């Protein structure tokens, strides 16, 4: 099928063909439909130097994505909706890489939107901007046109917005799952073998959009407990009483100083458990809690749930 008109990839002044994972995930779409205004251009992203092993992992992810970008005539079962944070933030892109590698290793017939993917609109909705309605209506039409059976996202904010808020705008003709829900389903069906031991003590932070908003509390914990070698410990404030990291809902953008202090308090909660890793299942929380770790110079390692699953499956990850 001929690509949709007016689609460009913003590669931050890179030459054509360069940029690997970032150049493929750092995109902006210049036109949702005819006569619609451009969305805001992707923000400036700093280049970072990575070890040789990490570069190889990103190179493989880039090649995988090139083969997974959806053409409308494609027949596939699952759409992986990456979301903005794992796409634009160079420090969180491992969430996207690990999710892609897991889906590929499982042999799932999936695709990505790539240059056609737009923001789910969650930040607009949370701050009361009517732009949300335009994005939601567009995305609902786009998702339904793909004739997929399932939409999977690794972002808690995207999951809440697409699975709950979109239903107020229209009907979605597919199942919507957070990646943790899909992974646990496949673990229980014996389709995922967690064979590699991970000798580490971890604690888990409940993202607001996955926990309080969507009542998904047990699923990530069951996955952590299924990983061999992992010692899982809880913080004092968990589940519906969990502290917010302060990164979502437009709060970090408007009140970064308060968000920093909120993140530090949550990191202190995690440190009290004696854990080596602070695990979450939301790119926003990953980003926000890392701010607290850096501010406190904590020895905690910020980790996304998908990284631990990938490692236990024997998939190479950045660590």
Describe this structure in words.
This protein has 13 helices and ten strands. The protein is of the alpha/beta class and 319 residues long. It has helices spanning 20-25, 52-68, 84-88, 93-105, 122-127, 131-145, 156-165, 179-188, 218-226, 251-254, 256-271, 283-296, 305-312, and strands at residues 7-8, 28-29, 78-81, 110-112, 150-153, 175-178, 200-204, 230-233, 277-280, 301-304. It has two domains: 7-185, no CATH class; 194-312, 3-Layer(aba) Sandwich (Rossmann fold), CATH 3.40.50. Strands 4-3-5-6 form a four-stranded parallel β-sheet, with helices on both faces. Strands 8-7-9-10 form a four-stranded parallel β-sheet, sandwiched between helices.
Helix count, DSSP H or I runs of 4 or more residues: 13
Uncertain residue segments: 1-49
Q: How much helix is in the residues?
A: 40-55%
Q: Residue-averaged pLDDT, rounded?
A: 77
Strand content: 5-15%
Q: What gross morphology would you assign?
A: globular
Q: Looking across the biggest beta sheet, what order are the strands in?
A: 4-3-5-6
State the major sheet. Answer: 4 strands, parallel
Number of domains: 2
Elements, N to C (H/E) = EHEHEHHEHHEHEHEHEHHEHEH
> What structural category arises from helix and sheet content?
alpha/beta
Whole-Å distance between the termini?
Answer: 39 Å
Got a strand count?
10
Nearest-angstrom radius of gyration?
A: 19 Å
